[in-house]
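QA checklist item 7 of 12: single-chain prediction sanity check.
[x] sequence parsed
[x] length recorded as 428
[x] structure emitted
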Amino acid sequence: MEKLYHYLWKTGIRGSDFKDVDGHPIEVLDPGVHNHDSGPDFFNSKLKINGVEWIGNVEIHVKASDWFRHGHSEDPAYDNVILHVVAVSDKRISRPDGSLIPQIELTFPEKFFHTYSFLAEEMGSVKCGSMLRNLPQINKTDWLESLAVERMQQKAGKVNEILAATGGDWEQTCFIMLARGFGFGLNGDPFELLAKSIPLKILHHHSDNLFQLEALLFGQAGMLDSSLHIFDDYYQGLCREYYFLARKYGLKPMNAGLWKYSRTRPQNFPHRRIALLSSSAYGGFALFTRLLEAGNKVENLLESFDMKAAGYWQSHFAFDTEVSDVPTQLSKSSRLLLIINVAVPLLYSYAASVGELDLAESTLGLMQQLPAESNVIIKQWASLGLEAKDASRSQALIHLKKEYCDKNKCIYCRFGHHYLRKSAQRED
């Protein structure tokens, strides 16, 4: 509940003019900076108390007596509190010199509490779903445009983390991002671990031998055990090759139990994705260079991800299981997803790092040229009246669901804020 009062104070949706419990007028000139660490809840607040301007800290509690229960009376960090904001004024608080700290009771209309309770307790994962159709279109558009940028910045942050860990190597970073992209959500984390487990320079040493590349990556994935598939010559050959190369480079495989197969069609098994990842390094991995050369043209980017499975993987979904009519390359829809999740974040992050603002802007614009993704989240939003017309909008909706709805951050979402502000309007 205290979080709700932080929200009320920070947003000012209950106005800026109050009276303290002694009847003195208080005007909020600036609510201050919200503090998420130890110490008072808001720093450097600017208030006019009984006609006199004050600058200091504000502390917020549900009950005024919580001041003592939280031990603030013994903490010098609270000596500069100029206002105590409470829901229930059951106690007056004094400074060390004996003077009373001004105190206000922050209240809200009953309809505000009903709206907040609805958002907090509604069982649906999109808690405001039943209200969305009545939301003004401008509110929807503005928030989704902001979310699209927020999503891009989050992905660019991921790129920057990987880049820092690789010592600024863009191709190694690209290789890790590509691997994660091959996980297509379900196996994203294990694919990232796989790519991080082997330096790209080792793969470059064997870039002229696809079989050795496959041995290195399948071995690092923890998928090679010579006691299995004893009649599969290809598999047994991989085991022998990996054993030699692992000893040579001091490699250790990851835990094979990390790979997920449930709800996965055979053509999407991680085996085939690892075979494609191996083919991406055949002849030398230079995908990042190709992405830069693609010039933000969709067809060129699609061609950059046109990787084909070869040899054994032209007739297998997994080890020792031969089938016919196996697709040898990624579908166009899969390559479009790789553009969204790999190419665009890489190019945006690179543009920001070198100060190429035109490239950054055109990369954001590229998302509006790509078709919207089709998944459970996008279909759910569509059923609530929020359609995704392009990839920029679908990414915004995915971000809204994962970062706000699923994390119960309704009061930080502009949709939730709209309903709460409306319900908090003064009735007097």
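[x] summary fact logged: The mean pLDDT is 91.
[ ] second reviewer sign-off
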